[in-house]
Amino acid sequence: MHKMLQTVWAVIHDGKIEPLERITLPEGAKVMVTLLADKDEPQFWLCASEVSLADVWENDEDDIYAELLQR
User: What element of type H or E holds 41?
Assistant: First the structure.
């Protein structure tokens, strides 16, 4: 069985989680929900992007360009 990871935005309405877009899953399907309050969203994206930015900015290839610029 192929399992797919999909992220969707949702809101809490009358104590129930309601997706903001249509999700096609069979009735009774089990899902994992990660709660992210509005006030926590900026910090979440900052932490999530930190690893990717480090990979982009901290690499040996940039040292070559830095050396060329100093000539």
Answer: helix 41-57
| Cα–Cα dist 18/10, whole Å | 5
**Mean pLDDT over each residue of the chain, to the nearest integer:** 80
H or E segment at 58?
none
In which residue are the tokens 């104590």 written?
Answer: 15
pTM above 0.70, yes or no: no
Q: Say how far apart CA 4 and CA 2 lie, in whole Å.
A: 7
Q: How far apart are the first and last CA of the chain?
A: 57
Structure tokens at 30: 């089990």
DSSP state of 42: H
